[in-house]
Amino acid sequence: MDLAYLWFWIVGFLFVGYFVLDGFDFGVGMSLPFLGKDDIGRRQIINTIGPVWDLNETWVIVAGACLFAAFPEWYATLFSGFYLALLLILLALILRGVSFEYRHQREGLRWKRGFDRMIVIGSAVPALLWGIAVANIVQGVPLDADHEFTGSLLTLFNPYGLLGGLTTLLLFFTHGVYFVALKTDGQVAADARRLAGRAGALTILVAAVFLAWTVGMAFGEDRELAGATAVLAVIAAALLVASWVSNARGREGWAFGFGAGTIVTAVLALWFALFPYVMPSRPDLANSLTIENASSTDYTLMIMSWAALIFLPLVLLYQGWTYWIFRKRVSRSRIEKAAAVAH
After folding, report:
1. What is any Pfam family matched here (predicted)?
2. Which residues lie below 8 Å from residue 215, measured CB to CB, with a gap of 6+?
C-alpha cells in the first residue's frame, strides 16, 4: 500500500480514538445540569473522568501533529480556513481544563457553580463544532486553485454541517451519560440511565438522518468507497439502537460499549465517504485536495511509519493500563466521607 494512503487511515484511526474517548468526556461535562442534584452528585460525575480526561485529549494533539507531518497541504488549508472554528474549540478546551483544576480550590457554592457552567460550555462547544468541521470536510468547501479556503466561518454553518454538529453533540452527550451510569452508583446512576433513554431516542433519529444524507451524498457524487460508507452507516445505526436497548435493560457496560462502537463506525463511515479526497472543493472539484497531492514525501512518511510502529502500541498499552487502574465505580459514600474528613 502507498504510504500516503496508509497515513490517511492512520490519521482517521487517531480521530476515531479521539472522538470515542474525548467524546464521552464531553458528554459527562454536558450532563452536569441534568444529573448533579447537589455538590456531592456533581463531584461524583466529574470524578468519573478526573483521572483520564487530560489523557483523552492528547489524542487530538497527536492527530494534529500527524496531520501536519503527513499531509502538510491538508493541514495548511484546514487550519487556515477553519481557523475561527478551531480557535473556539481550543478556547473551550482550555476553559474546561481550567475548570476541572480550579473547581475544588474553594468551598463557596457560587465559585463551584461558576466553574460547573464553564465545564458545560467547554464540553458542548467542541462537541458541536467538531461535528460541523468534520461534516464540512466530507461535504467539501470552496477552495481556489491554490487550495486556499475562500469562504468564512458562516460558510461552515450550512444545513449538512449543522446537522453533523447536532449529531455529534447528541451522540457525545448520550455516550457520556452511558459512562456516568456505568461509573457511578445510587441516585446519579439511576438518573443517568433514565436520561440516556430519553437522549438516546433523539440521538437515533438525528443520527439516522445525518448518516442517510452522508450515504446519499457519497453515492450521488460517485465516491470510490460509497458502498463501504453505506455498510458502515447501517452498522453504526444498528449499534446505536443496541446501545439504547442495552441501557433500557440496565446493562450499562453493554450500552457504553455499543455507544463506543457507534462512534467508531460512524466516523469511519465519514472517512470512507471522504476517500480519496482529504478536502473536496465545492463547486469546482478540480481544486480539491486529494490523498496524493496533499501528502508529504515518501521518505517523511517512511520515518513516520517506523515511529508509529514503535510508539503507538506503547501509547495504547499505557492508556489501557490507566483505564484498568481506575475501573471501579465512583461511590457517593466515599466522596461524602472525604468531604467530612476535609471539614
Report:
1. Cyt_bd_oxida_II
2. 226, 229, 230, 233, 269, 273
Three cell numbers at 266? 460512524
CA–CA gap between residue 182 and residue 203 (Å, rounded): 19
Instruction: Answer whether 226's CB lies under 8 Å from 218's CB.
Output: yes
What's the pLDDT at 271?
96
Handedness of CA 220, 226, 230, 236 (dihedral sign): negative
Q: Is the separation of the CB atoms in 133 and 82 below 8 Å? A: yes
Q: Indicate the DSSP class of residue 283.
A: S
Helical H segments across the chain, by residue range: 3-30, 32-35, 39-47, 53-70, 72-81, 83-102, 109-139, 153-156, 159-183, 186-220, 226-248, 252-274, 291-294, 298-325, 332-342
Backbone φ, ψ for residue 287 (5° rounding): -90, 5
As given in the structure block, the three cell numbers for residue 291 are 490523498
- Furthest-apart CA atoms within the chain: distance in Å: 67
AA letter at 181: A
- Residue of 40, 46, 48 whose CA lies nearest to 252: 48
pTM: 0.94
In the chain, how many domains are there?
1
Give the residue carrying C-alpha cell 487550519: 79
Q: Are 180 and 28 in contact (CB under 8 A)?
A: yes
The β-bridge partners of 290 are 277
If we measure between CA atoms, which residue out of 205, 282, 201 comes closest to residue 243? 201
Q: What is the pLDDT of residue 20?
A: 95
Q: List beta partners, residue 289.
A: 279
pLDDT for res 151: 87
| Domain hosting residue 263, numbered range | 3-342
Query: Whole-angstrom Cα distance, residue 299 to residue 120?
Result: 44
Low-confidence ranges of the chain (pLDDT < 50): none
